[in-house]
Amino acid sequence: MNVNKVILVGRLTRDPELRTTTGGKTVASVSIATNSFWTDASGQKQKNTEFHNIVLFGRSAEICGQYLTKGQEAFFEGRLQTRTYTGKDGIERRTTEVVAENMQLGSRPQGSGGQEGGYSGGGNSFSAPKQQASAPVQRQSAPVQKPPVQDDNIPTINLDEEQEDVRIEDVPF
Length: 173
What we know:
Layout: E1 6-12, E2 17-21, E3 26-39, E4 45-57, H1 58-67, E5 73-86, E6 92-105, E7 126-127, E8 137-138
Parallel strand pairs: 4-6
Antiparallel strand pairs: 1-3, 1-5, 2-3, 2-8, 3-4, 5-6, 6-7
């Protein structure tokens, strides 16, 4: 039995980059950081940060470009894929990235003007169709404009507010 599965939850290190393949399919590239903390043998607290490159296709890429911003938390589920490309200097290189098949949006970065708690996709995850081989990608000459996000229409649950009872009518999904 073979398994190639990756689950990552972290914060975006930059805004998503959107491109379009020669076939007209939307592709998004994002990078996230994940942290791990531990106490070493001498009692000192240690921290390690890993950076991960993630690629999304189709509708998931469009949603990613529309709603995700630098510093926002997000959940990605997918598979590892290694590809070879030739750099601008003519040297052939290899890179391993996560091809995301599911995504959930998390809380927005503090100070972004958004609501605390952010948008979690209403409990839904967005699935990208599985890709067998990467299609040639054509970069857009102008950056893709993100439509303004109206936080009034995004359902959120604030778990920080203490309430006596949670009513099922208050749950947005």
